[in-house]
Structure formats: C-alpha cells, structure tokens
TrEMBL record:
Keywords carried by this UniProt record: ATP-binding, Cell inner membrane, Cell membrane, Membrane, Nucleotide-binding, Repeat, Sugar transport, Transport
PROSITE patterns associated with the record: ABC_TRANSPORTER_1 (PS00211), ABC_TRANSPORTER_2 (PS50893)
Keyword Membrane set for record: yes
InterPro entries: AAA+_ATPase, ABC_carbohydrate_import_ATPase, ABC_transporter-like_ATP-bd, ABC_transporter-like_CS, P-loop_NTPase
CDD domains given in the database record: ABC_Carb_Monos_I
Keyword Nucleotide-binding: yes
Organism placement in taxonomy: Bacteria, Pseudomonadati, Pseudomonadota, Betaproteobacteria, Burkholderiales
Identification of the protein by name: Monosaccharide ABC transporter ATP-binding protein, CUT2 family
Annotated ABC transporter domain residues: 12-251, 263-489
Molecular functions (GO terms): ATP binding; ATP hydrolysis activity
Length: 491
C-alpha cells in the first residue's frame, strides 16, 4: 500500500464549510487542512457535526457554504467520485456491507474494477491480505456470508475493504467510530496499524468517543461543538482531560464505588443456564446487581444475553425484561418511526393502567415521558416527532437506552449500550444504572470497554461461547481480563 503524497503536504482543504438540514445547522464555518501522512483525531459530543463533516469530506453531502480543495486546488464540484479520485475512503459509523453477499463479493462493490476472469480469486486474496495485516488471527477466509458474521467481524471487513488498494491509491481513510464494535485486543491491532500507515504517507481520520484512543494515535485533534470548531489541539501536551475541556464538558470522577453504593440485596435470585449441556455455563444474579459480560468480542456474550431474554420472556416467566440492542441499525431502531415512537414503545407495553385506553394510546403520558427522557439523557439534534434516522448514531443509542429505562422492566439486558455515545453522556448513563440498581433493578451488561466493568459487581469473562472465569469488580484490570480471555479453562 503506497500513497503518492509526500508526508506533510496539503491533501484536502476545507474553507468555510457549512451544511444545513431543514432548521438544523449541522456545520458552520469549518476551516481545516488535512495533510498527508498524519492521523487527525476528531472529538465532540453526539450531534456536534463530526459525521456530517466526514460525509462532506467523502462526497456524500454537498456543502451549502464554503469550498473544498485537493492538493491546494479548489474543486468546483466535489462529490463521491471526486473524493474517490482524491484517494478518500470512508468507514462510516453505520456499516454499509450487503448482508446477502459474501465478504469477497462485498469487496467488489467498493472496487468495481475487480471483474473478468479470476476476479473472485483476486478479490479474496486482496481481502485476506489486508485482514492479515490489520487484524492478525482474524479467522476469516472471504467466502463467509456477511449476514452470518458477528458485528465485530463485519467491522473488521469494512475497515480492511477501505484500506485495500486495487488500482487507485488510498490517500485518506476516514474511520468513524471504528472500534465501537471491537474488543480491546482487536482495537489495539487497528490503532497500531493506523500509526504504521501514517508513516507510509496515508492520512487517517479517527472519530471516537474513546478519548484514550485519540490521545494514543493523533497528531492533531479537531474538537467540534454544535457544528463549529471548538479547538484544535496539537500532539504536544495532548491529554484526555484537555479534549474534554475543549468539548465544553465537565466530567467528574465517580465519587463512590459499586460496593459503597450497593443497596441491601433482596432475596430474589436469578439463575440462567446458557449453552448446550456439554458446554453449559451458569449465570447468576440477585435483585439490584449489575453483572458484566466481558472477554474478546464474538465469544458468545450477545448470544448469552439473547438466551437470557428468551428465558425471561417465555410463557409463565415472572420477569419483566427490556433489551438494549448493540446493533441498533438491525435490532434496535424502527427506521420509519419517529424518535418519540421509538422511545415510548416498551413503556406502552408496561403493566401500569392508563397507558392504553382500549384501542387508544395515552398521548399526554407519552409526550410527558418523551420530554422527560429527552432532558434526562440529552437527546439532541432534532425534534422528537422527527424520524429516528435524523439523529446521529450516538443520539439513536440514547433513545434505545431511554426506551429500556423508561419501561417497567426489572431485568435490563444491555448489549454494549454506550457504543458511539459521548463521554459526558456515558457518565450520565453510569449514574442512571447505579441509581436504578439501588432501586432493585438487575442489569446484565455486555461491554467492549473494560473500564466500564468497574461499575459492575461481578464480571463473567467469555471464551469460545462459554464462561471462562468470574471476576469481582476489583479484579477487572486489563492484565487479568486479557489473561481470562485467552487462557484455556480446565475441562
């Protein structure tokens, strides 16, 4: 993979870029020059305009104001074709793979020049070569149907496809929340690769709410706030605290541990047996407990959550359960419904009287609930009667979380619920979870962010589809978690 731009040379320039959607000013007066061979981190709260700016850079959106230049030459008409000619590739937050095609066939969608005799063999070789370079030990052969892949594997394929060179060189790759579906080990592989390709002259743009990743790899950080440039931070002296301050957010350290916050345990005790008899795992929880699922991504955590959900919702079960989906595009949002309709859906199914009057919905109650949670969890970017897809990915995730907590469920299953959520909102969510657990709700929480396990009472570490170890909260450091994720459990 070789870029033909010398390190430090201006690659793509933005001057006075503005973009409006209806009454929403998504971008205003953005000035920035992306230079070859650097890694630019982009940070900001949900709805700050990060993904919109990247869509402009990728040629998906045409700016309403301002100009773009390529190699210091203004471009009169900059669209997706112009971006591709400039060497721009993009991994969007919402993945774009075709589920009914194989990994190899998806390669040809982005690279149509792969055609003619032997195209499949060539496409497979290119994809596997790139996967091997970025994610050693990925375990994919290219023939898999995308629909059969885990969310982590889809993310890996999307990233590898963007960096693959067939004919036109790759000069700039946009990575929009690329590690949101990856575990710590796989994310570290990607970040190491990003630094390596920057040294070869390829520019990488990393958008992430995991500020430690930006601190680790970025040469410069563009901090956005409400569609504008809030700050431009250099590499020297870059810290997570500096990024948070530039975002205009103040995040206090958690003042108490889970042990200090723990409410007295009630007698209610839940037990679930997961998996076939030969490899069965037992998950236990008491009322008011927060249980974490950990381990490398794709080791059976989501399947365990689904098994618990099926058990809790079968006929005769006494538990009221809510599920926060990790793959919001496929399993979370109803794309044709409004924000409000998506939020109140589980609440309408609650047991309390008055929410439905025969065939009618308690509209006043639904509006009050929507307004309350809009404020409580900071849903921003569109009116609540607007379509759910008008929100940024992070704000859509907030709606899914609000849907679960606004319900009457006493058991809440969460499949990596803070994917794509900004740091301020994450801490608000942590406080909400602790508060609701103190009131007697039970949470089972799968997370790919190991730091979040500190908010749990215990963590079940999965490997190869079953529980490998059970750790107390104080044991959940990086070294112990990594060892528990890889070690062989005695039969």
């Amino acid at each position: 993979m070789v870029a033909d731009s010398r390190p430090g040379v201006a690659l793509i320039g933005l001057a006075g870029i503005g973009k409006t959607f209806g009454q929403v000013k998504a971008l205003s007066g953005i000035d920035f020059i992306f230079r070859s061979g650097e890694c630019v981190g982009i940070a900001g709260h949900n709805g700050a305009g990060k993904s919109t700016l990247m869509a402009v850079l990728a040629g998906v959106y045409t700016p309403d104001e301002g100009t773009l230049s390529v190699h210091d030459r203004p471009v009169a008409h900059y669209d997706a074709n112009a971006a591709r000619e400039a060497g721009v590739r993009c991994v969007f937050q919402e993945l774009s793979l075709c589920a009914n095609l194989s990994v190899t066939e998806n390669m040809c969608i982005l690279h149509p020049e792969l055609k003619g005799y032997g195209w499949r063999k060539k496409a497979t070789a290119l994809m596997r070569e790139q996967l091997d370079e970025i994610f050693p030990g990925h375990g994919l052969n290219g023939a898999e149907l995308v629909a059969d892949l885990t969310l982590t594997q889809r993310q890996m394929v999307e990233i590898a496809r963007a960096f693959t060179v067939v004919r036109a060189p790759v000069r700039l790759v946009i990575l929009d929340e690329p590690t949101s579906s990856l575990d710590g080990h796989t994310a570290a592989q990607l970040l190491t690769f990003v630094r390596a390709v920057a040294q070869r002259g390829i520019t990488c743009i990393l958008i992430s709410h995991m500020l430690g990743e930006i601190e680790r790899v970025a040469d410069r950080v563009l901090v956005m706030r409400d569609g504008t440039t809030a700050a431009l931070l250099p590499r020297a002296g870059l810290t997570q605290e500096a990024i948070v301050r530039a975002m205009g957010q103040h995040v206090e350290a958690d003042p108490q541990t889970r042990a200090a916050n723990r409410a007295p345990r009630e007698a209610a005790h839940f037990t679930w047996h997961i998996g076939p008899a030969a490899r069965r795992s037992t998950i236990e929880a008491t009322r008011g407990e927060i249980i974490g699922f950990a381990g490398l991504a794709g080791q059976g955590q989501t399947e365990a959550l689904l098994a618990i959900y099926r058990s809790a919702t079968r006929r005769g079960a006494q538990q009221r359960v809510a599920f926060v989906a990790g793959d919001r595009a496929s399993d979370g949002v109803f794309p044709l419904w409004s924000i409000s309709e998506n939020l109140v859906l589980r609440w309408l199914n609650g047991a309390q009287p008055g929410r439905r009057k025969r065939l009618f919905v308690d509209a006043n109650g639904a509006r009050a609930l929507t307004s309350d949670w809009q404020t409580k969890i900071g849903i921003r970017g569109a009116a609540m009667n607007a379509g759910i897809l008008s929100l940024s990915g992070g704000n859509q995730q907030k709606v899914l979380f609000a849907r679960a907590l606004a319900s009457d469920a006493d058991l809440i299953l969460m499949d990596d619920p803070t994917r794509g959520v900004d740091i301020g909102t994450k801490h608000d969510i942590y406080q909400l979870v602790r508060s609701e657990a103190a009131r007697g709700r039970t949470f089972i929480w799968y997370t790919t962010e190991n730091d979040e396990l500190a908010h749990c009472d215990r963590a079940y570490v999965f490997r190869s589809g079953r529980v490998n170890r059970v750790l107390d909260a104080q044991e959940c450091d990086e070294e112990t978690l990594l060892a528990a994720s890889f070690e062989e459990r005695a039969a």
